């Protein structure tokens, strides 16, 4: 491509010809053929390569687990062992003495209770024996039966039997019946005890059966008595008095 310029003032004709075009083309070719500079990997020439620096990586510390310690009581002061032992022995001695005293008290109380129960039972037994001896007899043993009954009495009852020859009259009456009699106690109960007079009141229930000489039993008859039993200074008990209780036979 050719471009021509003509200058009118200086009569100089500037012509851009093929030479300039060639130069431009050459420059373009030069620019096109230039390669990009490159260098090999590594340090530049003339430079001393440095040894790689070692980087120290610190390993992580293991996690510490805190284990709770058991609670321990603070140490105690040393006790006065001698004093403690003496006090312990003293307390033990007191306990033994108190236990012995309690056992003794309970033993005495139990003994007294047993003695009182035995005494009350003796009052009842004396009353029942008085009733049985008074109404039980046999034709062959009338004297012994009546004497046994009389010997077991005292006080007003004994005085009554001793008057007007009542003992002999009682024996004669039993003989006239031409029979035998048996009395069975069906019940007895202690009413009260008079510790001043040493008398006890006992209610006795009994049934008496009379048998004739032919061995025929008559209907049994029930009786109820209040027997007063007396205890003398020696502890001997006797039938003191005989009464019929209210409402009894």
From TrEMBL:
Start and end residues of each stretch annotated as Disordered: 1-54
Keyword Membrane among UniProt keywords: yes
Protein's name according to its UniProt entry: Mammalian cell entry protein
One cellular-component annotation, GO: membrane
Compartments where located: Membrane
Keyword Transmembrane: yes
PANTHER family linked to this entry: OUTER MEMBRANE PROTEIN RV1973
Transmembrane annotation, as ranges: 83-106
Organism: Mycolicibacterium sediminis
Keywords, comma-separated and alphabetical: Membrane, Transmembrane, Transmembrane helix
Biased composition (Low complexity): 9-31
């Amino acid at each position: 491509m050719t471009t021509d310029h003509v200058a009118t003032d200086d009569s100089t004709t500037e012509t851009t010809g093929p030479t300039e075009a060639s130069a431009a083309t050459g420059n373009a070719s030069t620019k096109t053929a230039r390669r990009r500079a490159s260098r090999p990997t590594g340090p530049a020439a003339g430079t001393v390569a440095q040894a790689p620096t070692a980087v120290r990586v610190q390993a992580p510390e293991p996690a510490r687990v805190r284990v709770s310690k058991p609670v321990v009581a603070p140490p105690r002061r040393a006790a006065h062992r001698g004093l403690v032992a003496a006090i312990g022995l003293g307390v033990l001695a007191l306990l033994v003495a108190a236990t012995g005293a309690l056992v003794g008290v309970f033993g005495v109380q139990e003994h007294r209770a047993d003695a009182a129960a035995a005494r009350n039972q003796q009052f009842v037994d004396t009353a029942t024996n008085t009733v049985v001896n008074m109404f039980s007899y046999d034709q062959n043993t009338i004297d012994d039966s009546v004497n046994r009954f009389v010997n077991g009495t005292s006080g007003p009852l004994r005085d009554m039997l001793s008057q007007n020859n009542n003992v002999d009259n009682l024996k004669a009456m039993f003989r006239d019946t031409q029979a035998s009699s048996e009395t069975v106690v069906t019940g007895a109960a202690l009413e009260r005890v008079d510790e001043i007079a040493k008398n006890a009141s006992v209610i006795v229930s009994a049934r008496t059966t009379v048998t004739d000489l032919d061995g025929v039993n008559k209907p049994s008859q029930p009786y109820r008595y209040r027997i007063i039993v007396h205890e003398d200074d020696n502890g001997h008990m006797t039938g003191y008095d005989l009464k019929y209780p209210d409402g009894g036979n």
